[in-house]
Amino acid sequence: MSSGKKKQKKKVRNKSKDWLMDYYRTGREFDEENRRRREAEGTPQPKGLKNLNSFEWGCIIVIVLGLIGCLIRYVVF
Description:
The chain is an all-alpha fold. It has helices spanning about 15-40, 55-75. The chain has one domain.
């Protein structure tokens, strides 16, 4: 009744991992290029949170809100 062939499983791609790794690689390349350009010009690199883009700010805000939510849930309640 069985033909003896095993059905091959469909390969699952982790699209979120691909997206994050692409974002990470692109950010590193952009940062290295900016660092080389600043060194060539002789201008100092800004320190701290001044050089973050809007996506990175959004991620930081979501993380902070999540931590505050966890604190409220487990400490207050």
